[in-house]
Amino acid sequence: MSLQEVITNHRLVVCVGSGGVGKTTTAAAIAVHGALAGRRSMVLTIDPAKRLAQSLGLASLASGAQEINTDALSAAHSRSAALGTLSAGMLDQKSAWDEFIARHAPNDATRDAILRNEFYQHLSQSFAGSAEYMAIEELCRIHEADRYDLIVLDTPPTRHALEFLEAPRRLEDFLDRSVLGWFVRPYASVGWSAWKTASRTVRFLFDRIEQATGLQTLAQISDFFVAMEDLFEGINERGKRVRELLAGPQTAFVLVAGPDEQILGESEDFAQRMGELDVSLKGVVMNRVHPWAADDDAADEVVVADAVSAVGATPQLAEWLVTTHGEAVCIARAEELRRESFEGGLPNEVARVAIPEFGQDVHELVDLAKIAELLSCG
Amino acid sequence: MTGKAFEIVVGKGGVGKSTVAAALATRYAAAGHRTLAVELAAPAGLAQALGVPGVAGAEPRSIGPGLSYAWIDGESALAEYLALILPVRRVLATVLDSRVYRYFVAAAPGLKELMTVGKLWYEHEREIDGAKVWDRIVIDAGASGHSLQYLCMPAAAVKTFSSGLVHRESQRILELLRDRDKTAVHVVSTPESMPMVEAAEIVAQLRGDLDLPVGRVYVNRCRKAPPDGAADALECLADAGDERISGVVSAGGRELGWYGIQERAIADFVRGSGIEPDRLPLLAVEEFGRREVVRLSSLVTAYEGERA
């Protein structure tokens, strides 16, 4: 399957990869690709760089999706199919969490008790993993609203791309009903009698935690879990559905990588372990490749010097040209070797595309259309 | 004395943080400081940049004169921490084996990050015979989204845990992190528009909500200035259309383009942040290794010298 087919045949495309590989740009370009093919497309980004956000019309957007004016795409759009629509949204972690709680809370009192809880506020904002959890939750919610034919998710920056897939389950475990007993019984509803019957280890540990964190904290955590009691079932069910959707036939994972040594190492690790997490890798986009000059021979210094003096330029210029060219060849060769070895390790059916280094930043819609065009070449 | 006792290297992914952290650690060790180079979560880029063979064991190990390497992960840091506050081995073993503990460690978001920073603090404080074990700790803190999460944990914990041991310890960690005489957070970037914009955002976050001391801003992989008149000469050469040098001419054109992007991005950054960054050169090599790190470490020194 080519990458174009991967995009065309799926409704959800999740872009994963190490930080700094151009994930956000690639995700936006995939959505543009969808719009150019006549689909109602949407890209959900997490923390876009300012200029890209501007080009997507996200500069002033707090949360929720916004349709982007695609006039600039009309020129690039020469196909027979009508131009689709392009929307973009930025994940606002805090309000996504609040809305999530509001959707699952059985009544206003429960909702407010949770939203006001200090422990909840930290959980939803500062704790590791909660952005990832909400990103996936939002993806599914947008999918269920059924307003788009193609939704592209740009995943949060993580040191190892795999954390994106592991973080939600970590959080889900945290919000597990069985935990309720540990926190709630000793401190709340059932009262201290139950606390006495808890195992010695649990009792000991809670004594310690209490000493370490102060009673107030445990009381807050306890309050939080009490208030959450009615929500657990909904959240668990939700988690199950979300996982099914991610592993389902409508969803494609696309790994965004770069020819850098360290990034390729991480990408290799990622591709390998993806299978263990029940998601299948459908495509690899290799960004910022330097394909040129790789098969150029070393520059002939005499020829360059002659040509340079023929146009009246200095010998320094000739020297600079030869050095610059030599370095470009060296970088391109090294890259080619690394890429070959990385791609050799990928399963055959994974689509792959290389996007050259542009020598300029991408921040206009037409630039994204250019990348979208290159994505079709794979 | 060069540098600070506690140096943290942050930046957007893929800009060469590990390389810069390795170069800094190498420089301090060469200047006679007992230096510990640390990376978080698991051995990765820093181990590679320092040429640490094998990956077993998280304990600091000597890798050269005055230079040690360690990686710190939250789970073992937590176990180690508990060993300090639960001195009875049998009790400790019971706790570590218990389901509640396993659940707590695996599920409690942020706990591992907090423990990681706590362990770093502990290494900084650690003394043998009344003398500090390390003069310099250089931390490769991973991609910015992630590393800022580590750095915001002590403050979050001080707020979350309003009293008790964790509150007190987080407070002490926070004091170290905010101590301008002891700590510096360096930001690494590459000379392109988006990474420089992100570097400016990191600087703003450090100065703002995080309230942590900003150290240096290192712009990695900088290109040399082309000779005067390069643009005109390249145009003439392109017009001349000599097939034999067409590859050379287009390489020159691309270099010129990138240099322009570099200078604009750096100028924008300086205007926005008021910080004049340190430049590190692009090294064109087939394989980036220990030799390149040593080369960069001497350049890092030179840049520091220039400033003083």
What does the model show?
- The complex is a heterodimer of chains A (378) and B (308).
- Chain A has 378 residues and is of the alpha/beta class.
- Among the domains of chain A are: 3-92 and 130-174 and 249-294 and 338-375, 3-Layer(aba) Sandwich (Rossmann fold), CATH 3.40.50; 301-334.
- Chain A has helices spanning 3-8, 23-36, 50-55, 71-74, 93-104, 108-116, 118-125, 130-145, 163-174, 180-187, 192-197, 200-213, 215-228, 232-247, 261-274, 301-310, 315-344, 365-375; strands spanning 12-16, 40-45, 65-67, 85-90, 150-154, 251-257, 281-289, 351-356.
- Chain A has an eight-stranded mixed beta sheet with strand order 3-4-2-5-1-6-7-8, sandwiched between helices.
- In chain A, helix 15 (261-274) links the parallel strand 6 and strand 7.
- Chain A is elongated and about 85 Å long.
- In chain B, helix 9 (193-207) links the parallel strand 8 (183-189) and strand 9.
- The radius of gyration of chain B is 22 Å and the shape is elongated.
- Chain B has helices spanning 17-30, 45-49, 74-85, 89-97, 99-107, 111-125, 144-160, 164-178, 193-207, 230-240, 246-273, 290-307; strands spanning 6-11, 35-40, 61-64, 67-72, 127-128, 131-132, 136-143, 183-189, 214-222, 278-281.
- Chain B has twelve helices and ten strands.
- Chain B has a single domain, classed as P-loop containing nucleotide triphosphate hydrolases (Rossmann fold), CATH 3.40.50.
- Chain B is an alpha/beta fold.
- In chain B, helix 3 packs across helix 6 (111-125), helix 6 crosses helix 8 (164-178) and helix 10 (230-240) packs antiparallel against helix 11 (246-273).
- At the A-B interface, helix 3, helix 7, helix 9, helix 12 and helix 15 of A face helix 4, helix 5, helix 7, helix 8 and helix 9 of B.
The CATH architecture of chain B can be given as 3-Layer(aba) Sandwich
For the largest interface, the chains and their residue counts are: A-B, 82 and 83 residues
Helix percent of chain B reads 40-55%
- What's the CATH architecture of the domain at 3-92 and 130-174 and 249-294 and 338-375 in chain A? 3-Layer(aba) Sandwich
What does the oligomeric state look like here?
A: heterodimer
What's the average pLDDT of chain A?
78
**How do the strands line up in the largest sheet of chain B?**
3-4-2-7-1-8-9-10
| Beta-strand proportion of chain A | 5-15%
Strand order in the largest sheet of chain A: 3-4-2-5-1-6-7-8
